[in-house]
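Field: sequence (string)
Field: structure_tokens (string)

Example rows 1 and 2, in order.
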Amino acid sequence: MHKKIEKSILLLSVLLLVNFTACAKPKQRAAAQETQNKTQPAINPEIEKLNRVLLSMTDRCKAAIPNGDPEEFLADLHRVLEVEKNFRTDDLSLYFLIDKKHSVGSDYVPRDLIPVKGNELWNVSRNDLSLRPEAYAALEDLSRAALNDGIKLLVSSTYRSYQYQEGLFNRYVKQDGLELAERYSARPGTSQHQLGVAIDFGSITDDWGDTKMGKWVYDHAADFGWSLSFPQGYEDVTGYMWECWHFRYIGKEACRFQKKWFGNIQQFMLEFLDAWQNS
């Protein structure tokens, strides 16, 4: 982290300062503000916005964010947002937040889906798979790198329509009951698969992460912009049980941002970006 005096306000310090001045009585708050103005450089508007957004995040998300220079955080954030400017404008952003609280309609279909057929780069478990162009290109890059290390990836699930997900979810409800089904299957309109940017690799079983293929993907996916969506121990955050096989394409810069500032938890990072852009 940077050690320059003019950048010495740490993210945690900013949060504590706001909490202190907000809870103080009017005279105390005025005195605290006056002391702040005399002893610290003025906080730029973006740091004030950062503070507001961070305060709006869940306690677990805030706990995952390491203490650090807010201007360094903002510089990394702007690199992520700069990448977003190059995303196609006729479809949802690759950073679009979709979860149990954020959804898309039954009529949403990603633009220009590309069929994912078995080829020299990867194997497939079925013949009706497809991805958004950006995710397809990233899958090609990931698969070439895997082949160079002697591993041929198996793609088992990709884009799912609203209607397909509806049928799948209803089937699981009949099989296991609503409470259990909601822990491992998304309701229609809330699945990352409907965005056309998510892949289930391999056997879609818990032991896949311990296979040679699974270990390789874990070690290298982020280098090609792929992020694990539902990590172990975060069901209360993501809404879903651990899925070692489910990766979402968000791009290399977002993967770096996620790892550096959000404990490498995709949900925290996407929730932050959504809050930032809507703040």
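Row 2 begins here:
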Amino acid sequence: MLRKAQRRVADLSLNNVEKLEVMDAQHLSFPDASFDVVVANHVISTVPNPEAALDECARMLRPGGEIILLSRIGADAGLRHLVERLLQPVVCRLGWRAEFSWARFARWAERRSDVCLIERRLMPPFGHFSLLRFAKCEQGAEA
């Protein structure tokens, strides 16, 4: 993937790309509070420790900044929940995990005093993926 990205940057003359690196989502090399926005599309539910990756996103974010996630989120109940459970042996090969429900994101945000949910939007088709936006509050502010 890194070689493909490097070729694409060169082929398209993407001068705005400063560098491409391989990093562990749980231990990123960026300094604290170094970004206004952290975007992680299709990442959080595929890493070994999603909460640690979310903590890294929050660590790198400046106060007042946003974490924007597009993620596959399992249904908590209903027909979709049943179908996901039945398909889990197949979709786990894609890196998807049916046990990664909205409740897991909510628990993560609740345990942090510096992060609050500002948007949760189901994405078509079928709401299988969600767009989530979290804000990093100023130090000492209510989450």
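free_text_note (row 2): The CA atoms of residues 75 and 82 lie 9 Å apart.
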